[in-house]
Amino acid sequence: MKHIRLYFAIIVPILALAAFMLYRGSDAYPAQVAATADTTFSLATFLRTAFADPLSTALLQLIVILFVAKGLGWVFTRIGQQAVMGEIVGGVLLGPSLLGWVAPDVFVALFPKESLVYLSILSQLGLLLFMFVVGMELDIDAIRDRMGESVVISHTSIAVPFLLGVIFAYFSYEHYGVMDTGFIAYALFMGIAMSITAFPVLARIVRERGIANESTGLMALMCAAINDVTAWCILPVVVAITKAESMHGVVVTILLTLAFVVVMILGVKPALQRYYQRQQTQGAKKGIEFIAVAIFVLLTSALISETIGIHALFGAFIAGAVLPAGRELRHGLTKRLEGVSVSLLLPIFFVLTGLRTKIDVLADTSLWSVFVCILILAVMGKLMGSAMAARLSGFDWRESLSIGALMNTRGLMELIVLNIGLDLGVLRPEIFTMMVLMALFTTFITAPLLDLMARWRR
Question: Among 4, 98, 128, 254, which residue's beta carbon has the most beta carbons within 10 A?
Fold first, then answer.
């Protein structure tokens, strides 16, 4: 009781004196309150005033993005699709195609232009971590065991749609190409965008369906891994050609890229292996101390590849591939980094892609015929190209078509390539939107096609 009486004896007089001074001050110096022109409540006005602080805006954006992405991801898993499909669709729905159309004021208040810079940086960090994990997940030894047929199928699945993409670019450049970047850049990007396969999405489909140990599942995984490596070797060349102002610049960029890869494989990889082995002999906690080193290698490799003139994502991919081959180490790093990149940062990338996807640019009905043409070429090139190569390699038609259906999965990797093309000014918004829709459709039909092949077997 003594302390309570002492507390009130000290605090109450101080608060009373402060209240008295505030009262006298308000009379002596009244605030000049500006008259408000409109007192009508609206959600957009509330968002602008309540979340005027950049941190508040960023937190609100992350909450909305995660809620929509994970909610739709759960819905899509209920209908037999991958969660990533729901997250991509969620990103499109939060963009101008739905939210910006239904509630434009809310859309502008939720995603003000000045905030997109920070969201873009977060999404790029997420992509760097994601590509780093993709590089770690590559099983080079498994690929080497069945290198012959997997290379034939994989490279056929690249070459056929790549050719069809270039042919499409030739006939569409006059209407949909960007004159500033030229035909070569446009044709190369259309070719690479047609030929990409989403290895992470494919791997999840194979594992969830329990076909990872079957011939079709194993072959599809190997082909997708080779496809990823090949595509991420071709993409830097395409970016170099697009960015370079002369052929001399292209040659220099390619030579620097080759030198960078050689240093990473012959220099960095053995050094990381020796460091990890020394850690193990000293009894250091497995994986935990190595994370800082791995992140340093990731960021340095990404910076070098970006400085060379290719893309930072290529550096992240190479950094993951040169890590020590210990299964326990890679599994531990993947488990820690994938949670941050896949759960938190990648949905931001999907939303930014959705903000760039404007379905209203396809208001002209003639553009939908172009989209159907892109869709047919993409499916024919990837699915049928892979299936024909698999059939010639000794698989029966059911297995060949199953491999083709899996290789036709584009998903996230396609969106990465398309965003690079849009950032470089190679793709116009109409083509970008059509290619995003194509990526969604070709990934969406993978599960139904596999179900059809399973019924064929029975």
Answer: 128
